[in-house]
């Protein structure tokens, strides 16, 4: 049965998020809010967490997972990024964007695209997500909480608890999230390619 944590959206309780961070470190899978919508998240090295996300969302091995980072110091350890791309990303973050870039050796092979060796990264503009990343001290491996055969992500914490009670370990609720996933931009070819139009304004990369 999933634990349910009601967190203040502007002043999240550090002790509560410390408990959530400990769950993640112990290979737990949590549902947590971001600046686009709710996400499923686990520790980067958690094979069980990855398998559970794939099962819940019915994803194949070509799916790009997203590594949610607190800042550019974390992001820079996970992806290869040149100066031009860095400037483009810096101007758009934190925000509702996911960037696809070549992965470094720090990223487990199972999280990389099997052919392209890329991975998605982002820095969210969300108080609770940032506070959780602070408590954890490392990026969170994440995927949008969009269930199979549904058009929109789940937006209510209580509904997530009700529907995923036996497949996640915790639900972090700080109020309604949006229903629009991030805008995804692929920089792996050197120039930006908009893969998915979402919550972030894509025009800055057009």
TrEMBL record:
Q: Transmembrane: is it a keyword of this entry?
A: no
The protein's enzyme class: transferase
Q: Extract the Gene3D superfamilies matched here.
A: DHBP synthase
- InterPro entries xrefs: DHBP_synth_RibB-like_a/b_dom (IPR017945), Sua5-like_dom (IPR006070), SUA5_domain (IPR052532)
Question: Is the keyword Transferase in the record?
Answer: yes
Keywords on record: Nucleotidyltransferase, Transferase
EC number annotated for this UniProt entry: 2.7.7.87
Q: Which residues form the signal peptide?
A: none
Q: Cite the YrdC-like domain residue spans from the record.
A: 14-200
Which PROSITE patterns does this UniProt record tie to the protein? YRDC (PS51163)
Q: What is this protein called?
A: L-threonylcarbamoyladenylate synthase
